[in-house]
User: What shape does this take?
Amino acid sequence: METAEGISQEITEAKTRADPQTTPVSFANGRLLIVDPDLDFIRTLGEQGGETLKKCMQCGTCSATCAISPDQRPFPRKEMAWAAWGMKDRLLTDPDVWLCFQCNDCSMNCPRGARPGDVLAAIRRESVRHYAVPSFFGALVNQPKYFPFKLLLPTVILGLAGLLRDPIANILGKEPETGTRIVYSYSTIFPHWLLNSVFLFFTALVLFASAAGVVRFWRALKSAGAWEGIVTPVKGVFPSFRATLKSILLHDKFAMCTANQWRHLSHMGVLFGFLALSVVTFWVITSGINPLIRGDFIYPFSFWSPWKLLANVGGLAILVGCILMIYDRLRDIEQIGAGTYFDWSFILTLLIVVVTGFFTELLHYFRMEPHRHIVYFVHLVFVFGLLMYLPYSKFAHLLYRATAMVYAEHIGRSNPNPEVENSDERQEGRAQ
Assistant: This one.
């Protein structure tokens, strides 16, 4: 066992090795921790919505008022301290950053206006960029100055696919479809088989990049947990995944927020709307091998087809969800937070996807030429962009938040032992 003299000597030697003006020394889990502030990280957080960070006085009100913060080592008080110290490595391996839903209960109750919810949102944005594969794409997608290129890339890819339609058809052995039923397609320039080929190829790339990013994040969480002394998990990975999936579908923790208690409804609209459209898309793509499909598969669907109705209901759910999100942000910027380019680019992309989708459907039924082809192309560009940039945009929250929630279940973080007495930090926060 180390003596007090030995520990004191260790601290003295650490201070000698470190820069005493920029490197504070502290203890973590009984181990000596030398904090080397990452000034660029602090500056970046300020540029991405965390400019109020320095107002934090560590009173603990944020942790005390958060309904979903565990009693043991609650957030976001400690995250605010780490961010002020520029502890980038610690924050990027902290699952608590992702357990926050940015309902802003903490920001509304902060006596100094430090807005912890916005600071954690900025940290999540940096996490997405940090774990992105390839990394340069993470930086490219989230900077406004690269927006023209971000829009140009899917436009060029789809444009080339349309121009090379006939050569690709010859390579794949595609022949003009014939039959007794005439189907008026959305666009003869982009037939169904061509879109499937292009989208499936890039979907495979996106899935690979997404999986690589999630694996990097998971390993970082486990490494940080091992350093903190978390050796034995309390629940298996698959049971943790099932519990997390249930929590996501019910939005149960999001519904516990008080300052913006209805905000979870807009998120549920977007989530379930996206799931509905994903089911329809999967059905269409697998039409050639789907054993559940009997008889001729006719696409596009008629208006009263169950799949068309499901797609329209899903689109309406996303439309309403996006409108509510925009309304909330513009209605009360002080309470909700105005958001950043990271937020707005994703919300507006979703909105454009849905609006152009409905316009495409409408113009298709009215047989309007060439309007339907133009609008359909715009729709495809934004759908393709939404898919391509999934691992690098706000869309990636679905992946990283779910991963952090699974890890929290895995180590018992989301369900702390009720028999354990509340930490001093939570007690101090409640006393404020």
